[in-house]
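Support reply, case 0932

Customer input (verbatim):
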Amino acid sequence: MLRLADLDNLLRKAEKRVDQAELYHEKSSHLIIKTKTNGIDYSMSGESEGYSLRVIQNGRMGFSFFTLPSSFEKALDDAINASKFSRKSGASFPARKKLKDVKGLYNRKLLEINENELADCLVQMIDAVKQTGAKSTENAVSRAENTSELLNSEGGYFRKKDTEINVWSSAQFRDSHSSDWKTSRGFFDMEPIAQNAADYAIKFSGGKPVSGEFEILLHPDAVTELLQNILFPALNSEKVFRKTSFLSDKLNKAVCPKDISILDDPLIAGGMESCCCDDEGVPSETRKIVDKGILKRFMFDIETAGLMKNKPGNGFKHGFSNPPHIRPTNLVIDAKENVKLKHFKGIFVYDLLAAHNVNSTTGDFALEIGQGTLYDGGMGKAIRSCSIVGNFFDLLKNVSMADDFQTRDYYNGPSWIYRGKIV
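Our regenerated output:
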């Protein structure tokens, strides 16, 4: 691992050959434990570390990565060569600015829990499922510690450190298979996750198909599938720039009911996508994507911000070996009116299958319901072998929000309600 002074020396070497340079370093450690039906299946731990380099030369950006400091010179050559084939964007690496201190992202106590203790928690999850009469099929826990730092030729610098734990459980009852999961920055009781998976498996068993128009209640897990595969691509400024986004010409126009706002908020204490800045060094701030139903902004990294003369802040890496890509942080739904679930009657959809097959350009979808039930103030008879069909942007214009605000990884909001078709 290179010290900051060593990274700075490498950056100075790059500056002699290019207009601007950026050096990024990432180190992570992880532990994964999985169970099979009756006990521990395997555990695996490891570390990864590496560096990435971006340069701007003649208005064009180039990227490369390396794992050994001795490979820096080759990486610099590769980045310069890559810049020759990129477009001119007008991008510039950000200067150093004061970053906000976001609380709750690093929990040392999580790292003090040893492998045997985590394995015992998984065994207890198996027992919790058995007590319901369902069968535990798989449980898993993953824990990670991540550190990243960046410095660039414009004086920009950050160092970020976080911890996370992810727990997943699946269970089977007769013909039904279901799961539940949770992510957090610190340790939590895992048994309720297993109990939920078992309860869902029981409630979703013995389903029959339905068809027709219904009031449909989408659980946040189903909502996130639509968000990830339709809304986020539509908000991606790269697609907006290329005019391949459905929302390209919808800025400052109504896209959902006026009582609903959608925020991109990286400043939530302990949030799974919270951060003091993005992975390009742009300081974090809460941004309203939709304000009282009106689309107010798209998501930009520094390259598309340079192309479209806008503010960046959504450039994030997926490992040191990849350049930043555009994505949201914590998505928060702010609704002034909420439908009480005790009064809702219709179809409850817990999850959707193969959501990656939607048409992200038009928003059209035809998705099989993985698990669902009739609903009348609560979950009723299970349904299966049927699909929801429609268009996401039509759904968004007429959606209502339930009163069950939840946090599911990056999503902070309730279940969605809309009038739709099931076939």
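We compared this against your earlier run and they match. Two observations from our side: Residues 206-423 form one domain. DSSP finds nine helices and 21 strands in the chain. Please reopen the case if you see a mismatch on your end.
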